[in-house]
Amino acid sequence: MTTLPPEIQARRARTQEWFEALQLRIIAALELLEDEAPAGLYPEPAGRFDMRPWTRETGVGGGIGGHFKGRLFEKAAVHTSAATSRFAPAMAAEMPGADQDPSYVSASISLIVHPRSPRVPTVHMNTRFLSTAVSWFGGGADLTPMVDEQRSQEADDAILFHAAMKAACDAFDPDWHEKYRAWCDEYFFLPHRNETRGVGGIFYDRHDSGDFEKDFAFTRAVGEAFLEVYPKIVRHRMSEPWTEQDRQEQLVRRGRYVEFNLLYDRGTMFGLKAGGNIETILSSMPPLVSWL
Predict the structure, then answer these.
(1) What is the largest distance, in Å, between two alpha-carbon atoms of the chain?
(2) Which residues contact residue 16 at a Cβ distance below 8 angstroms, ignoring those fewer than 6 apart?
(3) What sign does the dihedral 218-222-223-229 (CA atoms) show?
(4) pLDDT in the model for residue 254
(5) How far from each other are the two terminal CA atoms of the chain, in whole angstroms?
(6) Which of 29, 44, 99, 276 is the most buried (most CB within 10 A)?
(7) Bridge partner residues of 111 (DSSP)
(8) Residue 274 falls within a domain, yes or no?
(9) Residue 10: per-residue pLDDT
(10) 133 in Cβ contact with 37 (< 8 Å)
(11) Is residue 184 in some structural domain?
(12) Structurally, how many domains does the chain consist of?
């Protein structure tokens, strides 16, 4: 299927192994939070992830979809995927190193968490490895508070989240955080509404410093940072009561999430064009939404 050298195949195997191990750790952390949620605010039984392996219709590979519905987390998804395939001509023209040989390998993890409480922010994270004749990493994490009082860069959750992402970047290059934070603000922007999706985080793509081990370690650090900081934010917020006005504000804000993912998100477009699993690609959609 692919003409890429064994070294690249080995790198894909290493990144796939890491992403799948991280998937299990994140799932365990979210299920623990689901158990800890106060029964007075969340009286329903605690939810558990439904793991659904899938196989690609084109090329070789597939993934493990982790789907969730619960009491604290109204909907969540933590997915991994890996592929050995070839880009279609239109996509090959857009990918570095694929103009002469459209073969590629990839591995990734992606997640979305839509809490039931409007007081607990929605979060998104993904990291990935992709290689044609050249290799690179991409991904990031961003936080989306649902109520206006938390949608400030000076709010406690935003400060904590940005500090975690900065620490992940600073361990490798002091310039990366400013660069990738700015890229996140630029990327997660809805031009038709002239507003950002949330309070940001970091976003990076086609990241290749020339040192695979350094870049892989950085990508692992982003995953570790997410795993440390998001449960802290959830525990800080999940016991706060909310009003019907808060809930309506949340549902409208979720509508912005849908608009971004369907109109602008590169990952959604890539997955649909590359023969990915529709169930996992579109699992980022929130369970209930409102447009006013």
Answers:
(1) 60
(2) 80, 82, 107
(3) positive
(4) 97
(5) 49
(6) 276
(7) 78, 125
(8) yes
(9) 93
(10) no
(11) yes
(12) 1
Sheet holding 50-55, edge to edge: 50-55, 60-68, 73-86, 103-115, 122-131, 135-144, 200-207
Q: Does residue 290 sit within a domain?
A: no
Q: How many residues comprise the chain?
A: 292
Strand ranges, E, within 117-167: 122-131, 135-144
Nearest to 196 by CA among 112, 106, 257: 257
The sign of the torsion formed by the CA atoms of 86, 90, 93, 96 equals negative
189/195 Cα distance (integer angstroms): 6
DSSP H or E stretch at residue 262: helix 244-263
CATH code of residue 234: 3.40.1500.10
DSSP 287: S
Q: What is the pLDDT of residue 57?
A: 73
Q: Is 222 a domain residue?
A: yes
Active site residue 207: no
In the chain, which stretches have pLDDT less than 70? Answer: 1-3, 58-59, 274-276
Identify the active-site residue in 124, 162, 177, 236: 124
Give residue 99's pLDDT.
84
Query: In terms of residue numbers, what domain contains 257?
Result: 6-284
d(CA 99, CA 93): 6
Which residue type, as a one-letter code, is found at position 6? P
3-state secondary structure of 3: coil
83-93 residues labelled b (16+ CB within 10 A) or e (exposed): bbbbbeeebbe
Q: What is the pLDDT of residue 2?
A: 54
The 3-state DSSP class for residue 142 equals strand
Q: What is the DSSP string of 97-118?
A: TTTT--EEEEEEEEEEEEESST
Question: How far is C-alpha 200 from the geometric centre of its chain's CA atoms?
Answer: 12
- For residue 59, what pLDDT is reported? 65
Query: 3-class secondary structure for 38-55?
Result: CCCCCCCCCCCCEEEEEE
